[in-house]
Amino acid sequence: MTSGTHSTPRRRDPAAAGASIPRRVLFGQETRTSLALSPDGRSLAWLERRNTHWQVRTATLENLTAGGEGTWLTALPGGVEDVKWASDDAHLLVTRDPHGDERTVLSAVAIRGTAIHDLTPPGVSARLLAVSGRRPELLLASVGGHLERREISTGARLSVRPNPGFFRWIIDHASLEAEGGLLMRGDGGIDVCARAGDTWPVVFSVGHEDAATTSLARSSQGGRYFYLLTSAGAQTTRLVELDTRTGEIAEILAEAPDADVCSVWFDPVTGRPRAAALSRARKQTVVLDEDAALDAHRLCPDPEAELTFLGSSDDDRLWLGAVSRADRSPEYRILDRVTGSILHRIPQRPELSAFDLATPEPIEFSSRDGLSIHGYVTFPPAVARKGLPTVLLVHGGPWERDTWRYDGLVQLLADRGYLCLQVNFRGSTGYGKAFLNAGDREWAGLMHQDLVDAVGHVTAQGWADPENIAIMGASYGGYAALVGAAFTPDLFRCAVDLCGPANLATVISSIPAHWTAARTLMTKRVGDPETEPEFCWERSPLSRIDDIEIPLLIVHGGKDIRVRREESEAIVNALRERGVPHRYLLYPEEGHFFRSRANWMHLLTSVEEFLAEHLGGAAEEPGPESDGALVS
């Protein structure tokens, strides 16, 4: 059953439409992620799927050279989210979310003997902030927002520094000491505070217009300087050195007139920035240390690829980096700076090497009010670029962006015969503060119009079939899918909503009380449900439920604390009352981010079936990789 404005979907030959790459390959069981090099440079640790969850695996470089596969550490319930080495080379520090509710626990795993003990209490979210070669037996962590120094081998809490209200601490990684923090003001601006004894005076401030483009912060050794990413005094985000004594920007370390600086790699010895990355169509690495330029080129000589620095040995001889292209598996590389040779090339997704992948292509077009909008199109291989069924895949955040990188979902859509359209609509990061701030209070407004204009662009090129277009996304992207179905119902044939808000007032009001920065951000940039409930309601998909006629696939995690399951169920109940075709999938053990591979594969199978039914592309039959999925 479809909207009366669309004709019956044209069924396509599955062989012509795609379905040549199995889901199990695109989202491989053997995928390696979060690679970490030990401080002595002798070993690696990484995350890999064991059964259905991420677990930790380790190997010495000698073992890898001999063709070894590494050793599994003891499996942890619910899996592991991240792994780092302690500076003592004897422990791994793992972050896990045992219940899927984002109350993360920090644990230490002894390499010899595999003893595991939690370093932080259950029920309070914890995050590793720093380890130090000067004090290898210690770590610094944020526990419930407060700063704690703990002994790694025992978990003993040695000191606690109460949080004066910071949403991000500024750390001297050498001394494991807090030197400052970022404080969100009530007006949406940010104060940068520096430690002065037991007080935290403000040394630098930015207004609301620079708040979303003021992010990363780290202290120099001794706390004299802070390295900040901020657009203060410029149109794009720059990497600057802030003198905490004078409150002045002492030096601009990296900048570009047309792109934000999006990440920084710090020298492990001096603590100074060694390289920065610019957020262009392809991420561009800018080496700030001349001595590092040649080695950066050795790690990644391909001008079409992106380089991400991941770490180094304590003596700085070995570097670990990730080299990625959107049309192949990312590859981890270990460089020996003395010999200039690559010691190891470790594919993140080794099974992909047997398949030809689609290549995302950057696009640019003008919105109806004259903004330059960027994005990517990915065409199905070996199919004429004309009249294609199309999936508009909307990124989350929304204060994020789509990038030129391997994306299994993009490859899945292209392989199944769809043109995949990704749009960095206004409000996305990477293009300067004016573009980001142009999204303020434009949820379901000009932000959505940018998506509509993107559809108009690919239709005008003849690439997309205007009668066979779906809109799909997660989080903000799920909201955009609901807006597409409710606000522009004649444009889309169907919609896929993954954990998207249905009512802006309820989703903002349900933000956890301790997420004060997030609440301030939402009320300033989206709307305040307490002072302007009508505005929030009119921008909510639920307010136009009577206009939804197209089929929907709606998905939610039962433990999601960012967007509560009630958001999806309000839409589902209203659709059921009106008899609108829909399918609702609730994964009771998942949160905002899926942890179980079986659940994720079940979801992807359902998405394939739904899109094939309504757009006419190919769909792979359900496979054993979904066995064990828990869904209702």
Automatic annotation (TrEMBL):
Keywords: Hydrolase. Residues 404-617 form the Peptidase S9 prolyl oligopeptidase catalytic domain. InterPro entries: 6-blade_b-propeller_TolB-like, AB_hydrolase_fold, Peptidase_S9_cat. Residues 1-21 are annotated as: Disordered. Pfam families: Peptidase_S9. It comes from the Bacteria. This is S9 family peptidase. It comes from Sphaerisporangium rhizosphaerae.
